[in-house]
């Protein structure tokens, strides 16, 4: 029994040693061939890792897959069913059953949105809390796009123009590059012109009005929009009888429709017409600041527009109307004058009557500019700021020497000179010219070795005659020196270690 225990202990120690040796070999990187491994040839390709994805890549692929499903609008079967419903609704529209077509298209739009929008998305979209057009960043839903367009067309055919504008705006917001853009902008332009009470045909324009919508062409089958009798602009009473007009603020809805045209279709055929119509409406209601901004926008962004000449002419008119008088800033006055001068240069084919009228208006603006400068003179006279009075008098004389106000400015300057003891007035002098005295030569210390070698001046500078003293000028500090400075060489330095007392 004793020998058996001894043998077992030796076997255990041998097992522990073998384990330690194997661990050491593994740590050093040495390993022998496995019994279950096979010999791999160097020419044999290894396993591919093309389909191996990390956690981030797997998450991104899953999100892309779900997003694609939303953008496709569901399965192909759902798309086919939606297209069948759309065709049936389109048949109602072709049969002029506009009310039934409106209900059918509205149902299709709601169903298509429910296929990819959750309740939370609809809630945030209704209250304006979420991001706009989150699911429409690529292609969107073609069935919803067509149904939304036909919904607006059905409402327009029923002359429910307010609802039609909302549907058109919804289409442009969800599908900014919709293929129905030309038709949408044309319909919105017709509604805006109707709400703003502009003529629906260019033949109805008078000589004082600008022809609008040169590119607005009626197509066969369009619903006629009669001018009718518009509600009074700015009325505080709601519109409860006329279904073709908004309940409140018809002018504001018209301007909103025009703004949607030149924002969503800036290069379209009606963009410059929408800007011109908006500017003319603001001119008509005497909102000169906004009219000036819109005319400027038209001139800068649409230089090839047929309304360019009118934009210059009416832009100068509203800019001049924004000028508040000689007591205020003259920027509007200068800008209006520049616009009229540009009009004379850009359009040499103007009639003699138009040219004479423009030249007369430019002369009136010159007179207004002279009055504005003279008003500055009077302003500083009241404040008692004499230098500013003299400054603006000189500005007036230099710019407009032959004007009536230039003679008044000269008289003011003469009075200022007489009050300045008969001398010419300089606003920067601040008093009489000081007399100049003779300079006393600086006495050098003869015991100072640094100055002992300097030659003394032969003669001192005589005192200037007081009678011949020149009048003080602003530029006296730039006068030429009387004589060149006498520069002397540096005296020799003492030897090293020597001390000078």
Question: Can you walk through the features of this model?
Answer:
Residues 461-483 have a biased composition (Basic and acidic residues). Residues 1-27 form the signal peptide. Residues 432-455 have a biased composition (Polar residues). It comes from Thalassoglobus neptunius. It holds the Pfam family TPR_6. With 501 residues, this protein is an all-alpha fold. It has a domain at 375-418. The protein contains 17 helices and no strands. Helix 6 packs antiparallel against helix 7 (161-174), helix 7 packs parallel to helix 9 (250-264) and helix 11 (288-301) runs antiparallel to helix 12 (308-321). It is flat, with a radius of gyration of 46 Å. The termini are far apart.
Fold blueprint:
Layout: H1 2-28, H2 55-71, H3 76-94, H4 98-114, H5 119-127, H6 142-157, H7 161-174, H8 181-195, H9 250-264, H10 271-284, H11 288-301, H12 308-321, H13 331-346, H14 352-383, H15 386-399, H16 404-418, H17 449-452
Helix pairs in contact: 3-4, 3-6, 4-6, 6-7, 7-8, 7-9, 8-9, 9-10, 10-11, 11-12, 12-13, 13-14, 14-15, 15-16
